[in-house]
Amino acid sequence: MRLRPQFHSFIALSLRAMAVYGQSLQNLTSLLTSTPELSALTELVFQYPDLVGELSQWPSNVTILAPSNKAFDELMTLNTTAQDSTPLNGSNNNNTNTVLSILQYHVLNGAFHSNIFVEGETAIVRSLLMTNGFANLGLSNGQVVLGRNHEGVKLYSGLGIASGVETPDIEFDKGVVHIIDRVLTLPYSISQTAAYFNLSALAGALVRTGLVEALDTTPSLTVFAPSNVAFQAIGNLADELTTEQLADILKYHVVNRTVYDLNEAQNDLRLATLEGGEITIHENEGGWFVNGARIIGGKEGGVVVANGVIYIIDNVLNPSHGDITTTYTPNPTLSTQPPAFTLASYVTHIPFTSELVSGTPTTTTTGSPTQTVDDSAATALELALAVFMTGFGAILML
């Protein structure tokens, strides 16, 4: 569900009307300092004097997703070691940039009241986060947060982590604030997100074909990522594939546009892939499929990444099935669809994992993404986020 500009205008007019009738709204600083539940956020913001000026430059008509004290307590409790080793203070430029990115991700470009999150639909709301490290979506598009309503509003950020809205619709002079119970997670790259979800076969295949950088840096992609079991189901063919053949198969899983909401596919959605062929996204008896592969998590299975969105699927797609034929028609009664490749058979080992060497994004035993890169860039707050995410495992959007 994409939000209409008319809605933004209505909210802006409503706020101006309230001011005209003498119901003066407090500014953000007043709201933060007068709301006990937000004292930790207030303290964090004012540890960075340069950010105060940055806050004053934010536009009117915004939504602020404000983590509660409980959200920060949870994060910092999990991050005690990192907190002790690298204090959070304003003297570190890396810290400041990271905190700014986090704050920008918590500010949505538009005043969105909680009633826009409708049960059964996905609200795609863009933030003020536009940096290439965490948002590479082209045309100065801000990174997205996905909003859904299942017995309460949930906001999904990087790695599919959900933040619940505790206190909605607190108005201030530039828009509206929702207090949330968990700090939003900055989106990771495609390869790091694959590592987080332990998609080691996919990660190894990307390394073998040299496609890691292309997928991590190309803006606005949708990736349908086969699970390890999906690759094992065609494991006997893995060693027979040339690098070019494997690259074509992987490219067939990538679409050069973002599809955050599968409701677009109610009547089948045909999309061109980077391989050149087409895939079809469709619903079948309540299940959601791309060609003959089931999308794990269904229509709400999308995970936000820095340059788009990933859906995990239970089958490796076959580029020769680009035309609509019975060869890809799924059987929704099956928990796992049969392989899309003839003569394929299951192997017990996970293919392509021999390609994963030092320097490749890997997964810790707890499922947190790690990478052997320059550790000086790993600020305390970045570590805090990594540890924070560790505590919740590889969450698929259910």
C-alpha termini separation: 18 Å
Strand content: 15-25%
Percent helix, as a range, is: 25-40%
Oligomer: single chain
Major sheet characteristics: 7 strands, mixed
Number of alpha- plus pi-helical segments:
14
Q: Within the largest sheet, what's the order of strands?
A: 2-1-7-6-5-4-3
Query: What is the SS-derived class?
Result: alpha+beta
Q: How many strands in all?
A: 17
Mind telling me the C-alpha Rg? 22 Å
Low-confidence stretches: 4-22, 80-91, 358-398
**Average pLDDT:** 79
Shape descriptor reads elongated
What would a concise description of this structure say?
30% of the residues lie in helices and 19% in strands. By secondary structure, the chain is α+β, with helices and mostly antiparallel strands. The strands form four sheets. Strands 2-1-7-6-5-4-3 form a seven-stranded mixed sheet.
Give your account of this protein's structure.
With about 400 residues, the protein is of the alpha+beta class. About 30% of the residues lie in helices and about 20% in strands. The protein has a seven-stranded mixed sheet with strand order 2-1-7-6-5-4-3. A four-stranded mixed sheet has the order 9-8-15-14. Strands 10-11-12-13 form a four-stranded antiparallel sheet, with no helix packed on it. Helix 9 (about 200-210) packs across helix 13. It is elongated. About 45% of the residues are buried. Mean pLDDT is about 80; it is low at about 5-20, about 80-90 and about 360-398.
